[in-house]
Design goal:
Layout (H helix, E strand, L loop, with lengths): L1 H22 L15 H4 L21 H10 L23
């Protein structure tokens, strides 16, 4: 019975060490099957910081970054009076 318990403990310790080492393995640069996945592949997709929500004017924005997102991604915005691709130059993006 003692030998059986010792065997179980050794096996459990081995499994713990194997699992711990697999999580800490460096990312694979070759991409070969069976090697550790790179951190980039494990990252969850990021949600966009802004979303189109019907706002159209510079007075409704809170930053140049937000105004730029709206200009590039949302239809019907009125934030680029000069048509030069720089939104809200008087309020937010004048120093670009």
């Amino acid at each position: 019975m003692k030998k059986l318990m010792l065997g179980v403990l050794i096996g459990a310790a081995g499994m713990y060490a194997f699992n711990h080492a697999a999580r800490e393995a460096p990312a694979s640069e070759t991409g070969d099957a069976g090697e550790a996945m790179s951190e980039q592949a494990v990252e969850a997709p990021r949600q966009p910081r802004f979303q189109c929500d019907g706002r159209e004017y510079c007075s409704q924005m809170t930053s140049c970054e937000e105004a730029t997102f709206f200009l590039e991604n949302c239809p019907g915005v009125k934030m680029d009076g000069e048509g030069d691709g720089v939104p809200c130059e008087k309020q937010w993006c004048g120093s670009r």
